[in-house]
Write a structure and sequence with these properties.
Four Helix Bundle (Hemerythrin (Met), subunit A), Heat Shock Protein 90, alpha/beta, 22 helices
C-alpha cells in the first residue's frame, strides 16, 4: 500500500526533534567526559531511528546525513574511534544540519522542498568513521563588496527568531485521565438538569397552593434563568468534550499496516500466495478502541489464511487465480465504524461445521440437521470450536473466534456478522462505535425500575395499540413497515416482578397503547415493550464491578441526575435471549397435527425477522423450509431446487414478488406449484395484480393468522 507522505510528516518532525534533543544531550555528555557506553548507544539509536523513519518517507537529505552520523557513532560504539574536541565539533555540526533540515520540512510539509545534503559535511563524517581527519570547514561567507557604508544609515542588528513546535507531546495516561474527567463532567451535568426539574416542581407546588403571587413570579424567573444557563453550559460542554475526544483519535492504519505485513508472512509460512488489499485506513477511531482491536484482527487474519483461502493447487483446479486475496477495509456509517475482513476463498463449509459441532457435543445430530445456515455459522464463535483436524502453529486449538466475539461484543460494545458464499469467500464485519468515552443512552422504565440502552442499537421508539400485536409461532409479534418483528415485554425478558408500584400515573391515551423500543442488531430486530421513556442523553458507561461481570445482558452502569445507578442492557444479548424463548415456545407448542408428508416450502422475504417467523410457523407443522432474502435469490433457489409451495413478499430489492411469481409461472416445473403472496399491501388493485401474475393466495400481513396460513397451504397442497 502506498504511503501518504504528507500524512506522516508532522509526526516524523516531532519524533525527529525529540531524537535531535537526545543527540545534543549525548554529545554534551561526551564532551564533558561523563558518557558511558549506554549513552553512546542511545546516540547511535537516535541517529538510526531518524535514518530509518526518513527513508520510509523518502526524505533523502535527512536520510543521508543521519546515515553518515550513524556510521561515526557505530565506530565510537565499537571502540574503533576515540572522541576528541575536533570530532565533537564535527558531530555537533551534523546534528545542527539535521535540525535545520527538519525545521525546513516542518515549514513546508513537502519533501521536495528540502535542500540537498551538505556534501562536505557528509564526506567529513565518512572520513571520520574510517578514523581519518575529522574536520569540516564552516561555510565561508561571500566576500564583502568594496562599498563604503553610509554613516547616516545604522546597520540593523541581526534578527533572531526562536522556533516553537506546533504540537506538544503528552503522555497517553494523562490524555486518558483528561478525557475520562471530561466525560464525567458531561455525564454529571445530568444533576444540573435534575435541579432544573426540581425547581419546576417547586414552582408548580407554589402555584397550586395559591401562595404569594410575587414569590411564584420570582421563582418562575429564576427557573427560566436557570434553564437558559443549563442549556448554554450544555452546549459549551458538548463542544469541549468533542474537541477533547478528537485529541485521542487515531487512524486505523496503525492496526491495518502491521496486519498487512502479517498477512504476507503467514501466507509464506503455509505455502499460499496471498495479496493483501487495504482500504479505509484513514478512518479514525478512539485510541482506546484501537488498542483492543489488534487481537480480533489477528484472529480473523489467521482464520482467513488457514480456513478461508485455498492452496494454489486447489484454486487453480477450481478455475481461480493461484493467488488469493484477503481484504481489510473500513468505512464510517453514521456513529459507527464498520471494519471488514474478507477473503475470496471457498467460503465456510457448513456441512463440516455441522459435523464437527455434533462430534464435539455442542449440538445433537437432529438439532444440527434442523439448524438454519446462519445458526450453523454462529457455531464457529463457540469456545473450543475448530474445524481443523490437527493443531498447528496457525490454528486448530479452538481459540480465536470466541475471543473475537467476546472482545467486539463485550469490550467494544459492537457486533459481529458473517457473510459466506460457497466458492466465493467469506466476510467478517465488525461494527464498532467511534468511541466508548461517552455514548448516547436512552433510559426507560419497566415496572418502576430504570434501564438503559445505548442508542446505536435503537432503531426507533413508537407507540402502537394493543390490538396491533399478533400471535405467531406461539409468540407475540407486531408488523412494522411490512415486516414481522417479534414482540417481548422487557419485564418478561428480565423476569421483573409485576407487582412493583408505578411511581406516577399513566394517561388514558398511553394506557391504550404499547410503548415499543425497537432494537436492531445487524439485520435482526426485536420490539421490546417498556412502560415509559425517562431520558435520552450522552452518558459515561462505567464497567460492572468484578462480581457482576458475568451478567450477560448488562454491559455497564450509568449514573442518573438523582445519583441512581442504572444498568445498561446489551442489545445483542437481549436478542439472543428472546430467540431462545421463541424457539422454546415453538417446541413447546409443537403438538399441532403435522402434514401427511414433509413438503418443501420456499419462503422469500427481504426481512430476516419475517423469514424466521414464517419458518417457525411452517416447521411447527412439519414443513421443510428454505429461506431466500430477495426475489433474485428466491428465483435462483427455486431454479436450483424443487419446492412444493412458495411464499413470497411483494416489496423486495432486485426483484419484487409480483415479478418473481410471473417469472416462476414461465417455468414448466412451477406451472401449477402453489404460490402464496404475503404482504402488507391491502389495496384491491394489488390483490388483482397478484391474481394476474399467477398467485394462488393473497394474505395481508395486517390480518395475518398462522392458522389461516397453514390452512391455506393444506388446501392448496391437497
Amino acid at each position: 500500500m502506498a504511503i501518504d507522505v504528507k500524512k506522516f510528516i508532522i509526526r516524523f518532525v516531532e519524533e525527529a526533534r525529540d531524537h535531535i534533543h537526545r543527540l545534543h544531550g549525548g554529545l554534551t555528555a561526551l564532551e564533558a567526559g561523563s558518557a558511558d557506553p549506554e549513552s553512546i548507544n542511545a546516540i547511535f539509536r537516535s541517529a538510526h531511528t531518524i535514518k530509518g523513519s526518513s527513508r520510509m518517507l523518502k526524505l533523502g537529505p535527512i536520510t543521508e546525513t543521519a546515515h553518515k552520523l550513524e556510521d561515526v557513532m557505530e565506530a565510537l560504539r565499537a571502540g574503533q574511534l576515540q572522541f576528541s574536541p575536533l570530532l565533537g565539533q564535527l558531530l555537533y555540526r551534523a546534528v545542527d544540519a539535521l535540525a535545520a533540515l527538519v525545521d525546513k520540512l516542518a515549514e513546508t510539509s513537502d519533501s521536495a522542498s528540502l535542500p540537498p545534503a551538505d556534501a562536505s559535511l557528509c564526506e567529513a563524517l565518512a572520513q571520520a568513521a574510517l578514523g581519518k581527519a575529522a574536520e569540516v570547514a564552516a561555510p565561508v561567507p561571500a566576500p564583502a563588496l568594496a562599498i563604503k557604508p553610509v554613516a547616516s544609515l545604522p546597520v540593523p542588528a541581526p534578527e533572531v527568531k526562536l522556533k516553537t513546535a506546533e504540537t506538544v507531546r503528552v503522555r497517553l495516561s494523562k490524555l486518558d485521565e483528561l478525557i475520562k474527567l471530561m466525560g464525567e463532567v458531561v455525564s454529571s451535568h445530568a444533576r444540573m438538569r435534575q435541579r432544573l426539574v426540581d425547581v419546576r416542581g417547586i414552582e408548580r407546588e407554589l402555584v397550586d397552593s395559591a401562595a404569594d403571587p410575587h414569590a411564584a413570579a420570582s421563582l418562575h424567573r429564576f427557573a427560566q434563568t436557570l434553564k437558559d444557563d443549563v442549556q448554554a453550559q450544555e452546549v459549551l460542554m458538548d463542544e469541549l468534550h468533542d474537541k477533547t475526544l478528537l485529541m485521542r483519535m487515531l487512524p486505523l492504519a496503525i492496526v491495518f499496516e502491521p496486519a498487512a505485513r502479517m498477512v504476507r508472512e503467514l501466507a509464506r509460512s503455509v505455502g499460499k500466495q496471498v495479496e493483501c488489499v487495504v482500504t479505509g485506513a484513514e478512518i479514525e477511531l478512539d485510541r482506546q478502541m484501537i488498542d483492543k482491536l489488534s487481537d480480533p484482527i489477528i484472529h480473523l487474519i489467521r482464520n482467513g489464511i488457514d480456513h478461508g483461502l485455498e492452496s494454489p493447487e486447489k484454486r487453480t483446479a477450481a478455475g481461480k487465480a493461484a493467488q488469493g486475496r484477503l481484504s481489510l477495509s473500513a468505512r464510517q456509517d453514521g456513529g459507527w465504524v464498520v471494519i471488514e475482513v474478507s477473503d475470496d476463498g471457498g467460503g465456510i463449509a457448513l456441512a463440516a461445521v455441522r459435523d464437527k459441532a455434533v462430534k464435539k457435543g455442542f449440538v445433537s445430530a437432529e438439532k444440527a440437521a434442523a439448524m438454519a445456515d446462519q445458526e450453523v455459522i454462529d457455531l464457529i464463535f463457540l469456545p473450543g470450536f475448530s474445524t481443523n483436524n490437527i493443531i498447528t502453529d496457525l490454528s486448530g486449538r479452538g481459540v480465536g473466534m470466541d475471543v473475537v466475539k467476546q472482545c467486539i461484543l463485550d469490550d467494544l460494545q459492537g457486533s459481529v456478522s458473517v457473510e459466506t458464499r460457497p466458492g466465493a469467500g467469506t466476510t467478517f464485519a465488525l461494527r464498532l462505535p467511534l468511541s466508548l468515552a461517552v455514548m448516547r443512552v436512552l433510559l426507560v422504565e419497566v415496572n418502576g425500575l430504570p434501564f438503559g440502552f445505548t442508542a446505536q442499537y435503537v432503531a426507533e421508539l413508537l407507540r402502537v395499540p394493543h390490538e396491533a400485536q399478533l400471535k405467531v409461532a406461539e409468540r407475540k409479534a407486531v408488523i412494522i413497515r411490512n415486516e414481522f418483528v417479534p414482540l417481548v415485554p422487557l419485564a418478561e425478558l428480565l423476569h421483573i416482578p409485576a407487582h412493583r408500584a408505578r411511581p406516577h400515573a399513566v394517561s388514558a391515551t398511553r394506557a391504550k397503547d404499547m410503548l415499543l423500543l425497537v432494537l436492531r442488531v445487524r439485520n435482526e430486530k426485536i420490539a421490546v415493550q417498556v412502560d415509559d421513556l425517562l431520558d435520552e442523553r450522552d452518558m459515561v458507561i462505567k464497567p460492572l464491578p468484578e462480581h457482576l461481570r458475568k451478567l450477560p445482558m448488562v454491559s455497564g452502569m450509568v449514573t442518573t441526575g438523582k445519583n441512581e445507578l442504572v444498568g445498561v442492557l446489551h442489545a445483542p444479548a437481549l436478542l439472543e435471549a428472546a430467540r431462545r424463548i421463541r424457539h422454546a415456545a415453538v417446541r413447546a407448542g409443537d403438538e399441532t397435527p403435522a402434514v401427511a408428508r414433509p413438503y418443501n416450502v420456499l419462503v422469500v422475504d427481504d426481512s430476516l425477522n419475517t423469514r424466521e417467523i414464517e419458518k417457525d410457523v411452517l416447521e411447527a407443522y412439519g414443513y421443510r423450509v428454505t429461506l431466500a432474502e430477495d426475489g433474485l435469490d428466491g428465483l435462483r433457489k427455486a431454479m436450483d431446487g424443487d419446492f412444493d409451495a412458495i411464499l413470497t413478499d411483494v416489496e423486495m430489492p432486485h426483484m419484487d414478488g409480483f415479478s418473481l411469481t410471473a417469472r416462476l409461472r414461465q417455468e414448466e416445473k412451477y406451472l401449477s406449484t402453489p404460490i402464496v403472496i404475503i404482504t402488507s399491501r391491502e389495496k384491491e388493485e394489488d390483490k388483482q395484480r397478484g391474481v394476474q401474475v399467477g398467485a394462488d393466495a393473497y394474505i395481508v400481513k395486517g390480518d395475518f393468522d398462522q392458522n389461516r396460513l397453514v390452512d391455506t397451504l393444506r388446501a392448496l397442497l391437497g
